[in-house]
Amino acid sequence: MKFIKTPVKGMCDMLPSDMRLREHILSMIKETYSSYGFMQIETPVMEHIENLTSKQGGDNEKLIFKVMKRGAELSRALAKGDGELADNGLRYDLTVPLARYYANNKEKLPAPFKALQMGNVWRADNPQKGRFRQFTQCDIDILGDETNLAEIELITATADMLSRIFAEVQITDFTVHINDRQILRAAALQAGFAEEEIGSVLISLDKFDKIGLEGIKKELFENGYDAGAVERYLGLYTEIPENISAAAFCEGISPEYLPQGTVEALDEILSCVRPMLNPGVKIVFDPTLVRGMGYYTGPIFEVSIDDYNFSIAGGGRYDKMIGKFSGQDVCASGFSIGFERIVTILKDHMENPFQISENNVAFLIEKRVPMERRQEIFARAKELRAAGTTVTIQPMKKNVKRQVELLEAEGYTKFEKVYEK
Amino acid sequence: MKFIKTPVKGMCDMLPSDMRLREHILSMIKETYSSYGFMQIETPVMEHIENLTSKQGGDNEKLIFKVMKRGAELSRALAKGDGELADNGLRYDLTVPLARYYANNKEKLPAPFKALQMGNVWRADNPQKGRFRQFTQCDIDILGDETNLAEIELITATADMLSRIFAEVQITDFTVHINDRQILRAAALQAGFAEEEIGSVLISLDKFDKIGLEGIKKELFENGYDAGAVERYLGLYTEIPENISAAAFCEGISPEYLPQGTVEALDEILSCVRPMLNPGVKIVFDPTLVRGMGYYTGPIFEVSIDDYNFSIAGGGRYDKMIGKFSGQDVCASGFSIGFERIVTILKDHMENPFQISENNVAFLIEKRVPMERRQEIFARAKELRAAGTTVTIQPMKKNVKRQVELLEAEGYTKFEKVYEK
Predict the structure, then answer these.
(1) Whose CA is closest to A392, among A405, A376, A402, A377?
(2) CATH match of A16-348 with 3.30.930.10
(3) Is the interface score ipTM higher than 0.85?
(4) Which of A67, A73, A132, A322 to probe the B interface (max B CBs under 10 A)?
């Protein structure tokens, strides 16, 4: 019989020490967001293939794990030759399922609705270090709040959560970057780009951290844009003072390109969030922040941390997306937390595998110990467990030294060996 | 754009109140088993299709959701015409993944290894009331312990866990049934059945609760078994005294059919577990308990509860199965907890949706409230949250009465409305 020991390509078996750390982080995420009124929900891991391929997921749609039709339906599809063989697919993010969930359950949910999702997503990506085909995402979303209260709650809660988790490894500093899609759009229009060119221009600006202004300039020229527009555009992003406010950045931009109140609402988010942050945590207006997904319509935000070249959380307002799915517009703003990246950072800063408790007790019982003696051990274990101690009762192995070592690695510190006499 | 609002057939969207209850039960399961030294592990939801179709999963193998190959591999398989189109499948239980996991990670794990798995499984079954295509299972398994210490720990821990969970709805009574595959085998041999007939005979005995001895007799006759053997077999199961011990039941069975020590080991499990149980919980030797899966080799057990015609947990020893997978024999015993059934029983006994806390606070803020006033609210919310209270801050809706009602349904009891002046 052919049997394959390794997990499916790009996916991981979680060892007990992995799980302890992951469960600990998940419970801190859950606890913090709960205290902000986010309510945990869950959707099936599978979605209708039609929903997953509806062009809202960007490049992720190419990476879907498709689930085959079964029985007669599969036979029909195969007979047709060019039929769709899959009826479902594994979700590649938590946003598409949320849109479907909200359309399906809206009547039963509070409005605004503050959702917390923690779950796996799957992408048939090329596996590489730190990138897996099954990984955990945590998303918080506020649906039905058109005001910037939503962004203030999302950012405050997320900064609080990260501060609490990182405190365990003495990391206090990280930065929340914030910008607004309306400001990005207005800047491009002000420079002289046409409405339909904005998407492509933003793809170049998004590379600011990697290729700098010179690289962006080169790319925009290569793409054949008007030289005057390119020069004016780069002028807007040249020599920006540190800690510039949105209002100051937008001074040169004509009000006709910028919906009224955009700048004020963004600066208000900064003013309201800033006093709520722990020492070491910063929030800054970052005019070059773009965020990849096309569906954002308002404020966008991202969390970065020194020494790591990836963001650990990102999100924004996406007022049109749920409407595109469900036919009914629902304003929405959300934050996606890079759970696996948080795990990576914590592991980098821990000397030993994570332990929940340090006082675990192991009773190792020799084979011929009589039943009465065993019953005494069971009774003692019961008392210890009731008092909150982890207790394992196991037969003593021939190689008891190795048995003890392996238990020590899992947090056992007290061993009681029970012999026949 | 075609968009389907409902979840995939046979699968559920979990509302916040569902999730609160499920997460609460999961955390009690985790907490209890942790205190017995079970270590949580996790495997990917997908397994190699070869592993899933290796004839260890019984009828469940017919119900696999298969995951399609991708890219060039899919094209090749399609071109071949009769090629296998799937390379992976969603797991239909947690036992096959555990066997693969143990084969893959044994060197890094304590021996014996006490595993706790909590996760979803998928079966393309015909959906019906209470039966879903995605559902949660909780399995505990002890690998590498050939003694009945394993069964004592599995049963004690599970009874403890169920007592704690059911206490919340004032259920104290349930029964653990226990038997041994060796006794079932010996009884059939004693009656005169051949070794190769035992599997089929046990399938009939397994229906004892549904069709009674008369029904079993009829079925055995229909299956063409020797009349003498059938009569002798049924004689063994007729007028069994309540609370019979394994030793008493086996009195008439020749020692040549029964491995030495089987009966003593089973009665020892009963003697050791009984004093550990909470009042109301019983453990009984049940000579008609069979359990469906073919892979059991020793003690088998099941938990039943009054007023419900389904078992809420079941398991047994399966010393040969991991070896069949991995080529290396590993003794093992496990208990599978019917998580969805526990949820059903708790819901049946709760008058209101489950709430975590009763003192949640909602600030409802009118649109034009000035920023300074909002900042005061944020600061107060921060204090409340730090003190453990759940606080939500939301814009006040036009229909504030409905807004409050929906929040009340989710556990909010204190509302503070903040007006412009």
Answers:
(1) A377
(2) yes
(3) yes
(4) A67
